[in-house]
Amino acid sequence: MISLKDKVALITGGSRGIGRATAIMFAEAGANVAINYRSDDKSAEEVVKICESKGVKAMLCKADISDKEAVDSMVKVVIDRFCRIDILVNNAGIWEHNPIDTMTDDNLKRTLDTNILGTFYPTMAVVPH
């Protein structure tokens, strides 16, 4: 395994699924992790505990990544805590399990905002650091 000792990784959508596995893998490699999530407090807290059990620092970053101000605030909190971000994993995404021919405009907007803006906003906020 490669060493990421003392690196800082921000992982969006880090409380479940691929994001959870990524956060744990980064922690096992020695990276401190900032775990972004939107709503599942219990799952996010569990991931932090698992990461910390690997001997690294971990923090929660509850924020809607489709909201630019929320993302800017989240990145500021991570920078304030760890002084830098070395790695950004844009993992968060949604699909509301609607057949495409029954998708409403609201479903489509939430999906596009999360999956497109939710990649651009974190990248735009992290790159200067």
Q: How large a portion of the residues is in β-strands, by DSSP E? A: 5-15%
Give the class from helix and strand content and strand pairing: alpha/beta
What summary fits the major beta sheet? 4 strands, parallel
Query: Order of SSEs, N→C?
Result: EHEHEHEH
Low-confidence stretches: none
The mean pLDDT is: 95
How big is the Rg?
15 Å
Helix content: 40-55%
- The total of helices stands at 4
Q: What order do the strands of the largest sheet run in, or round the barrel if closed?
A: 3-2-1-4
Straight-line distance between termini: 26 Å
Q: Which term fits the overall shape?
A: globular
Q: What do these coordinates show?
A:
It contains four helices and four strands, in the order βαβαβαβα. The mean pLDDT is 95. The protein is α/β, with parallel strands linked by helices. α1 runs parallel beside α2 (41-52) and α3 (68-82) packs parallel to α4.
Concise summary:
This protein is an alpha/beta fold and 129 residues long. It has helices spanning 17-28, 41-52, 68-82, 105-126, and strands at 8-11, 32-37, 58-62, 87-89. The protein contains four helices and four strands.
Question: Which descriptors would you attach to this protein?
Answer:
129 residues; 4 strands; globular
SSE layout:
Elements: E1 8-11, H1 17-28, E2 32-37, H2 41-52, E3 58-62, H3 68-82, E4 87-89, H4 105-126
Parallel strand pairs: 1-2, 1-4, 2-3
